[in-house]
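cache lookup: miss for this entity combination. No prior model stored, computing from scratch. Input as submitted by user K.M.:
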Amino acid sequence: MKEKALKNMKEVIKDIRRRTKHIFNLEGKTRILISRLNGRDIKFFTRYMALVILIFLSISFRMLAQDEKPNIIFILTDDQRWDALGFAGNKLIQTPEMDRLASEAAYFQNAFVTTPICAASRASILTGMYERTHGYTFGQGEIKQSYIDLSYPMLLKKSGYFTGFFGKFGVDYKGFDQLFDVGESYDRNGGFKDRRGYFSKMIDKDTVHLTRYTGQKAIDFIRESPKEKPFMLSLSFSAPHAHDPAEKQYFWSHEFDTMYQDLVIPEPLIKEDLYFKALPEYVQIGENRTRWYWRFDTPEKYQNSVKGYYRMISEVDSEIGKIRKALEENNLAKNTVIILMGDNGYFLGERQLAGKWLMYENSLRVPLIIFDPRNRIHKKVEEIALNIDVPSTIFDFAGITIPIAWQGRSLAPVLKGKNPLRDRSEFITEHLWEVDIIASSEGLRTTRWKYFRYRNDLKHEELYDLKNDPQEINNLAENQIYRKKLVEMRSKFDLMAKDLESKKLQ
Ligand SMILES: [Ca+2]
């Protein structure tokens, strides 16, 4: 190929020389003999000069573009499990915008959270640290200032980016207003035990669904952000989180009412009694079961709940479409990176459970898409990506030094065809909140194996070979054949947990 290109180039140069030998007087002082040019020569000369100028301009613009920092939008959904996404192979859910984004992006098919609960997962995304280190979850008061000082919004604001946040911040911190240039922290309105939980915000004089409200906030931000600075916008949709106190649980805007209405949602996998009975008693009577009664304990309730959950995701999807349109209209689409992730997974009736919190794949796996319009690729990444990778990825795109204290890695090189995850073979996963209704648990997940245990009942351990048992139904912890693997996983977990514990800040 190279020889052929070189040959072609030589031919072109020869041709230029031949055609221009009487245009330039090469023997004496170089000058153009205008009088001797004929029409064909002028056409030819103009065409080549135009080409040279075009190449020059294209190189210059490219150099400029490389210097220009991208805008970044990080979209976090609440409780969207990894397969509640068309691109993940779900044939029922309608997520055309997320699918379109994924089709030109890096799609991480093995993305996980290091802690499957809203508060702790969000704190991990903010700080780039495992829960074991930052120590923040529900019921513990405010997150410590030392972690906020190292959080991505705090450092990004000092770096020249114009920053914004709209939606569920989900971490208790009084100084929210100082963390972003513009922002509003809100979630479902707990004061209402019905649909008003999701319909308490207004645009002009209309009460709208929170998803519409957050979408509009994003569009306004895009229109109004100062043109001389790059921006970083964090959007945290409350959807598709159920409005827990309401009988109907899931709420969406009127225009999504008929979506999925004629569909029959297939029954959940491993819904049989034996899988439920295999759980420790404290899980059988815990919050995962309580919420199963709220959402899935009759076939009718199951159909309504899953369709409601899907409608809420489809509504977020349609707002993503509007946001991308706003980027186009404001001439920002070509330089705006979009990251989409879920904050934790979700049980939709598997094991006769609902909610998240447990160490099963249902809780841990989330959707993750990274779209960079400057490097449109179609890449499915198999390696393990984590929620704690998000801030490092944002900083890498922004060209800012990544703090040493952060425990994730940048996923941005994937967009340039590199593989920064090749040597990541495992991660710790944990839910450290000590609360009566949810059993605290911790474990280690490798590319093939998973080990976990309940922290107040250390003798109960579970070990799964995910390659041969992706549903996690054959617990090998008591099987002598796997004794060595169990000890190896347990020791590795203990070592990694101790290391993360030692990294706590004051
Ligand atoms: Ca959540």
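stored under new cache key. The CA atoms of residues 122 and 170 lie 7 Å apart.
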